Amino acid sequence: MRSFDLTPLLRSSIGFENLGRLADFATRDEGSAYPPYNIEKLGENEYRIQMAIAGFSEDELELIVQENSLIVTGRAAEDEGEREFLHRGIGKRAFERRFQLADVIKVTEATFENGLLNIGLVREIPEHKKPRKIHIGGENRPKAIEGENAKGVKAKKAA
């Protein structure tokens, strides 16, 4: 029997465990692992995606939230002059990275500092989806309607 490694499914999805969507997302060919990234859980409802994109400037990056996807795109600008490299070890190539987001995950901020793109996410659960306690008996129990007994027959008034 084969065992399945689910880590590729979980590393680019934030805030939900819908296995059907995750399996579909994982079967698509993403190409390379460039640029490298981390997904951190900062608190109960806070997350951060941190991408290492050395060599890019802020105007070469684009973040788009579309439906339940966060799309991060980097377009390398053309070098203005002739540059001769003896060794080119900093990979600055165009990329597009997609992250699947749950319905309750919202992108709150994006900062770019020291070659790291930080994208702040927060989980905002609507009031109707939050758990609520249901009381048994007590106040929520239906009350008898005055003037009728249990069988729906009008009660006789005692004189």
UniProtKB/TrEMBL annotation:
Residues 133-159 are annotated as: Disordered. Coiled coil: none annotated. Residues 28-139 form the SHSP domain. InterPro entries: A-crystallin/Hsp20_dom, ACD_IbpA/B. Residues 136-151 have a biased composition (Basic and acidic residues). It comes from the Bacteria. Belongs to the small heat shock protein (HSP20) family. This is Hsp20 family protein. It comes from Pacificimonas pallii.
